[in-house]
User: Fold this.
Amino acid sequence: MANSRRIVKVSKAARPPVRTRHAIAEWAVTILLLLFCTTTLCEAFVIPTGSMEDTLLIGDHLLVDKLAYAPSDALTKHFLPYDEPKHGDIIVFRYPPDLTQTLVKRLIGMPGDRLKIDHGTVYRNGSRLNEPYVYHKYGYIAALDNFPTVCCLPVKEDLAQKAQREMLARNVVNGEVVVPPHNYFGMGDNRDNSSDSRFWGFVPRENIIGKPVLIYWSYRASTEDLLAATPGAMLDHLVDLGEHFFTRTRWVRTFKLVRGFPDSELPSQPVPVNPGNPNP
Assistant:
């Protein structure tokens, strides 16, 4: 997703026409998905929580490209932008402790990467990441934001707690978490309100479903309404839609492309703490 808060300016000479080619490919894939969408090619997904705010909002309805990370062959590699997951991608995956749940996070660590957080700053392989997509919305205190440590965010699933204990016991070397082969480390952009790899471990490669490519509709609703666990809650949500469809639809987000943030576009200097929008 385009980010209006980017700080670094890059000269035209340093920016080859790759972005244009990628943008054309993204739109081409999006149009194909809209025209021929099946459960094999794409999947509709709604954001029910605020862990990716303000990049993705509660109530954003997404199309997820399930072919994005599929293996390519000699023919398809020339016209479909297959790729391996990479730093800065927004990925959709099955939650390792409970495969019935689907999560969305930003890919921060790849196999072999060494990660730590020191006073709120992420370091990868010894280099500081200046992350303009990160938001701190809850009275942020940088001195308390360190990792790897035993975290205090409640994670209710026993398997999640076990995975975190194993990660901290087996994968920490010299104060850094080392991402094991065939696994990835994901974090939410709403960094202080995100249940992510810090708290339940790594994302296996086979759990990754794809990546979101398009917000086809965005509706301001609560997490409870979107999850609608009971028939009564579903009915209440339908009534709410009937009454407030036009006023609570975020029209400015309709048909908005969702893009990752590659390392090449990260600022070279630290960025100020971004509190985001208190009521997006």
Observations:
- Helices lie at 18-36, 158-170, 197-200, 223-227, 231-248.
- Residues 12-265 form a domain with the Umud Fragment, subunit A fold (CATH 2.10.109.10).
